[in-house]
Design goal:
Elements (H helix, E strand, L loop, with lengths): L2 E2 L3 E4 L2 E4 L7 E2 L10 E4 L2 E4 L4 E2 L1 E6 L13 E6 L13 H4 L6 E2 L2 H10 L4 E4 L8 H13 L3 E6 L5 H7 L5 E5 L5 H7 L4 H14 L1 E8 L7 H14 L5 E5 L13 H12 L5 E4 L9 E2 L6 E6 L2 E4 L2 E2 L2 E2 L11
Parallel strand pairs: 9-11, 11-12, 12-13, 13-14, 14-15, 15-16
Antiparallel strand pairs: 1-6, 2-3, 3-4, 5-6, 7-10, 8-9, 17-18, 18-19, 20-21
Helix pairs in contact: 2-3, 7-8
This protein binds iron/sulfur cluster (SF4).
């Protein structure tokens, strides 16, 4: 199903899309860089509206969101679009290639949500902000039914469309790949300043967690890690940060991230941030949540299962410290 794309502007011989900083100039019959928008009959269409590559019921911890209804499950759904070109993409089969999709209307999505024990819908796996019109429509219906809307996003969106969609979003995990602007621009086809702005604006509107995939030879030097930690700490030391291990995928074949680099990031970040986690690598300490004041175990996690042991609402049971957790 096609719906007219928002944030588009007709010009002489093309239509410009203003959703993200690529600002694609799309000629008749052509697609934007994300493959989700097409110029046809002098109109820009969101051709991926409701077209779904994947749908699953996931633990919220898998997003990863460790501080948003821990231990809950969430219906997770993806489109077939992305506006970045990370050569190590861990989901490239559905983000970078054309695959068969199934249409799921917003009304059917609500039905699926209600049929499962789910806190809401996570728009994830590829780049959900390229599913803009669909998330607006589905997100409104999900909110009306008392559900939550969650994004797992690269954060590459212009400010106006971001501000317009945020009232529908309850939590977001933003993938901050590096604080090196050259890597963002030349290797990933993104824009660091835009992603930073998205993090800062989203933090003022909803629950935010950050993931950093440490990729061998790309962003895993000590100075890369230190700069990323300093950036997050300057916004808010309570933002949970997940360092995740890379494995060879798509067009990137360097070996998996050395474990010592993940442990360096973990220890370094804990000096400045209150909640730091390790992903894609077995680690008790890197999976559990501890009270930043008294070190009591608050949430124990094992294989995406979370047991809330030391929390009373959003406070540490032992010392009363207020914890940045939505329950
Ligand atoms: S949303 Fe897609 S079409 Fe629009 S500017 Fe971004 S990449 Fe281009």
């Amino acid at each position: 199903m096609n719906v007219e794309a928002q944030y588009s502007e007709k010009a002489d011989g093309y239509i410009r899309c203003h959703i993200c900083p690529h600002e694609c100039k799309i000629k008749p019959g052509k697609l934007g860089l994300c493959r989700g928008r097409k110029n046809e009959n002098d109109t820009l269409w969101a051709i991926n509206y409701g077209e779904t590559t994947s749908i699953a019921l996931d633990p919220i911890e898998k997003k990863p969101l460790y501080h948003f209804f821990p231990g809950s499950q969430i219906v997770s759904i993806a489109c077939n679009s992305c506006n970045m070109r990370c050569p190590f993409c861990q989901n490239w089969e559905i983000s970078q290639e054309e695959v068969k999709t199934q249409f799921i209307s917003p009304e059917i999505l609500v039905k699926i949500f209600k049929e499962h024990t789910s806190i809401g819908i996570a728009y994830t796996y590829t780049e959900p902000l390229m599913w803009y019109e669909y998330i607006i429509d589905a997100g409104e219906l999900i909110h009306k039914e008392g559900g939550k809307n969650v994004l797992v996003s690269n954060g590459l969106i212009n400010e106006d469309p971001l501000m317009n969609i945020l009232p529908l979003i309850d939590a977001v995990n933003i993938d901050l790949k590096t604080t090196n602007a050259d890597i963002y621009k030349n290797t990933l086809k993104g824009d660091l300043d835009t992603v930073k702005r998205t993090i800062e604006i989203a933090h003022a509107h909803c629950h935010v967690e950050i993931t950093n995939l440490l990729v061998t030879g790309l962003n895993d030097k000590k100075r890369d890690i230190d700069a990323l930690v300093d950036y997050v700490a300057a916004i808010d030391t309570h933002i949970p940060v997940h360092f995740s291990r890379y494995y060879p995928n798509y067009r990137y074949d360097k070996p998996p991230t050395p474990e010592k680099k993940l442990y360096y990031a973990f220890e370094k970040a804990k000096e400045k941030l209150k909640y730091v986690y390790l992903g894609n690598i077995p680690s008790d300490d890197g999976a559990n949540t501890y009270c930043p004041a008294c070190q009591a175990l608050l949430i124990e996690r094992m294989y995406y299962r979370a047991m809330t042991k030391g929390l009373k609402a959003n406070q540490c049971k032992k010392c009363g410290e207020k914890i940045n957790v939505v329950v």
